[in-house]
Amino acid sequence: MEFLNGGKLVSRGKGGRPDPHVARTRTLIFISSGRLVMLEDRNRYELKTGDWLFLDSGTIRRCPEPYPLTLNYYWFHFSAISEEVPEKNGHARNPELVNAYCELLLAEVAAGADPESRSALFTLLCKALRRGAKPEPVSAVPYPVEACRNLIATHFPENLNTSELARRLGYHPDYLGELFRRCCGMTITDALNGKRIMHASELLARGMSIKEAAFASGFNDLGYFRRQFVRSHGILPSLYRKRVLSGYRNTE
To answer: What is the DSSP string of 21-39?
Structure first.
């Protein structure tokens, strides 16, 4: 197994890769913090802190949702396959150890270590992942649900609800709502609110006012926005904004 290159993405609420592209190399992704949605061919993966994902070469990949503010992940390109490569995806049993291996590997790359040393260290990283929890099975997502998710991800600031999404996709609202709930474990309204709150949180962290952030994220009722924000974060948006902005000033 030959290690090629790697890096660490720190989103700070910016970036994304919504356009499909064909992967030229095999890739290993490890989520240091936050959440990442990745599509590979017809499979969808929702990764959270401590999760890892192995992506094969020649597949079509894209990230349908903008990178959230808290997303940090490591990526490593490599060639060839060996028994040391972990299963398709899973959760690290010891995320701190995996993080340490990732940082050490990137430090070796920056220091100009020879290819054999880098490949050996990458093999140790793969072994650490193989000792993790059992991979979670990947289930196919029905087209109406995937199409609905994509509309929510890209058009959430608009005046969307279950009826409007069903109209755009050509399905009955009751059918689409029930199918979405069975596949995703939440209602379409919950998914919309979650996406809007995530976007509003990122805008607040950049210094936007509460009213502007709410309206820019698809909320047209400030009272409803505050209730949904507290439901998601456990604190008022004003306190969240104050804490995040204060934190940024202290770290720069």
So the answer is: EE--SEEEEEEEESEEEEE
DSSP 4: E
For tokens 């390109």, what's the residue?
77
Domain boundary among 98, 130, 162: 130
**Does residue 138 sit within a domain?**
no
Query: 196, 218 in Cβ contact below 8 A?
Result: yes
Taking the C-alpha atoms of residue 101 and residue 92, their distance in angstroms, rounded to an integer, is 12
Residue type, 208: M
Phi/psi class of residue 100: alpha, beta or left (left: φ > 0; alpha: ψ in -120 to 50)? alpha
CB atoms < 10 A from the CB of 127, how many? 12
Instruction: Tokens for 33, please give them.
Output: 């913090």
Q: Could you tell me if 246 and 224 lie in one domain? A: yes
Residue 137 maps to a domain? no
pLDDT tens for the 252 residues of the chain, in order: 688 899 999 887 767 777 788 888 889 999 999 889 888 887 888 899 889 999 888 888 888 888 888 889 999 998 866 555 556 888 888 888 888 889 989 988 888 888 888 888 888 888 888 775 544 544 557 888 888 988 998 999 999 999 999 999 999 999 999 998 888 778 999 989 989 998 998 899 889 999 999 999 999 999 999 999 998 888 899 988 888 777 543 333
Q: Decide: pTM greater than 0.90.
A: no
